[in-house]
């Protein structure tokens, strides 16, 4: 769960950084949380963790159709045509919401972007070398 949470935070960092980098281009990018959608996400867990996950889904989960509503709203709403660099949540009925406090750390998100670029560059160089 810790790794999952870190990956979601990284996605928000990337969204905010990309929104800054695209400012003024007319391209928009936003992050969202669709809600706790009942899915097979919990299928890889066992024991007490699995039981807790199943209880959370049972009492607080939403179906796939309802989970898609926030994504559809953010992707198609005329009100959001020029909105970029924001976070939306199903719990706010698809409206803008604050993301976690750490997600607003500009230095960390820029560093994550730079490290990712460096890793991609290394990977591309490796692929070119292997192709020769």
From TrEMBL:
InterPro entries: NAD(P)-bd_dom_sf. Keywords: Oxidoreductase. This is Short-chain dehydrogenase. It comes from Ktedonobacter robiniae.
């Amino acid at each position: 769960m810790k790794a999952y949470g870190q990956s979601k935070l990284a996605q928000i960092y990337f969204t905010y950084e990309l929104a800054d980098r695209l400012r003024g281009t007319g391209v928009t990018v936003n992050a969202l949380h669709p809600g706790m959608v009942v899915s097979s996400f919990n299928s890889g867990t066992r024991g007490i963790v699995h039981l807790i996950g199943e209880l959370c889904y049972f009492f607080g989960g939403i179906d796939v159709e309802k989970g898609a509503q926030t994504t559809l709203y953010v992707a198609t709403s005329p009100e959001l045509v020029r909105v970029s660099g924001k976070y939306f949540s199903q719990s706010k009925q698809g409206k803008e919401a604050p993301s976690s406090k750490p997600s607003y750390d500009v230095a960390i998100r820029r560093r994550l972007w730079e490290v990712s670029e460096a890793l991609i560059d290394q990977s591309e160089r490796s692929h070119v070398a292997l192709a020769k």
